[in-house]
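How it folds:
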Amino acid sequence: MAATRVTLPDYSAGELESARRRENFPIAAWLLRPGRREARAAIYGFCRLVDDIGDEGLGDATAQLDRCREELEACYNGQPQHPVFLRLQPVIRRHRLERGYFLRLIQANLQDQEFVRYATWEQLDTYCTLSATPVGQLVLALEGITDEAPVSHSDSVCTGLQLANMWQDITSDRLRGRRYLPLEVLTAHGVSEEEWESGRPTPGNRAALLHAVGRARRLLREGWPLAREVPGLMRVEMATFILAGLAATDAVVAAGDLVFVQKAALVRRQRRATLVRSLFAWRGVEPSPGR
């Protein structure tokens, strides 16, 4: 009997654009040339697809992610069938993008199916090299940027953004049975796993979360030189990412105990203020530790 072909979720270009606009970390798409916007949109579509498969319970996630790998391979050595990969293939060819970027993102979501609690920062950092840093490296690769310094700064920014997003949404992760905040942080603040998973705003839980927020802020500030290492108006965009990430950590702190029961999201006014600030801030020194 022939094996049943795994069906992947489908997304129209309009659906992907609507999803992109809801992201906490706005992409200043109006700063980009049309060709770059198209390339970024194709990459975003891939990221959205594998993340939704990994997070949203849209079917057999492992089988669907394996199917994504097949479609990705077809982008290099054949003809993909799924709309997301049909949009991605010409971008891969035009910019000579390596498989490894995309394979790591798939691997991150495969890991999410089995590895749901982290013991150390080292483990979480390794996860971020799969789930976060390939995105920034892809953005740089579209511009032909592969030098060590900007890639390293991009990795810091992307990891900081990933952590900020995790700490904004600890409630949703807890309901999925996931705990990204490392056990070593909980232990350092006298918190048991049971206490954290209770979702109660205990003094220990608050202290552990603030500790984690501080790490995200440090990584974002360390990546600030990226805003001067990229060309043209991308400098404003990179500053926007970093300042938006810092604003997200501010939202976690400002939410207080509510962060233990709902997502600490940025409102539209905060997003706009971040973009305006980034128009000028990229020229300056890194944001202060208080941000």
Summary: The mean pLDDT is 87. The radius of gyration is 19 Å. DSSP finds 15 helices and no strands in the chain.
